[in-house]
Amino acid sequence: MLGEGILKGLAETARNFLGSYVSKDRLTTVQFPEERLPHIEAARSFPFLVYDGEDWQQGMRCVSCLICEKECPPKCIFIEKSKDKKPDATGKPQFYPVVFNIDVSVCMSCQICVEVCPFDAIKMDVEFELSTNDRFGGLLWDKERLAKSNAYYGKIHPTEAAAVDAQLAEERAKLEAKAKLAAEAKTATVATPPAQPLRETSETTEGSGA
Question: Whole-angstrom distance between the N-terminal and C-terminal Cα of the chain?
C-alpha cells in the first residue's frame, strides 16, 4: 500500500512518545544534578595515576619509563624522571616521577597512555564534572591530583581492576618465591663449611720417601 512505510514510522514515533510517559525503560531525560545515572564501566574521561596502599607517594606504580609521554598524540603529558630509586609496592627499587603533569585542556581522552603502560600505572577515570574558573592552573594536573588509590580503580572499573590485581599478585608471588629460594641457598652455603684439604702425615711422608 502506498505510504505504508510512513504510517509504520509514525506509529513507532507515537509509541515511543507515549511510552516515555509511562515506561521507565523509555525515560531518557534525567533531572541532573538531582538525579544521576550510574557510571558505565567502559566510560572514560581523563587519566589518573594508580597507587597501592595508603601512601600515594610510596605506593605509586609509575616508574617514570616515559613511554606514555612519548606515545601521547597531543603531547599533553610531561614527566621528569628521578635520579635515585625507591622501593615500589613489591619492595623492588624503582625510579619514580619527580614531576608528572597532564594538561587536561589538551588531552583528548584517547587512552593510548593506558594501553602502552607496561606497569598498569595509568588508567582512565569516569569523572566528568571537572569545570573550573582557572583556565591555566586548574587544567594542569600534577601527580598529587592525578594519584588515586587502587581501591578507587576497583570501584569504577571492577572487571579490569580484578584482572590487573590477579596479574600483579602472581608477579609478587614469583618474586617472593625467587627471593625465598635465594635466601635458602645462601643459608645452606653458610651452614655447610668448605671441605679442608688432606694433610700428609709424617708417616706417609717417610713411607713415600723410602
Answer: 131
**pLDDT tens-digit readout, 100-126:** 999 999 999 999 999 999 999 999 999
Cα 63 to Cα 88: distance, rounded to the nearest angstrom: 9
**Structure confidence at residue 210 (pLDDT):** 45
Domain positions in the chain = 47-165
Backbone φ and ψ for 67, nearest 5 degrees, come out as: -65, -45
| Grid-cell match 616521577, residue found | 97
The number of C-alpha atoms within 13 Å of 158 and in the hemisphere containing its C-beta is 3
Grid coordinates belonging to 192: 655447610
User: What is 47-165's CATH number?
Assistant: 3.30.70.3270
Query: What CA–CA distances, in Å, run from 183 to 2, 129, 174, 187?
Result: 87, 51, 14, 6
Region 156-162 average pLDDT: 94
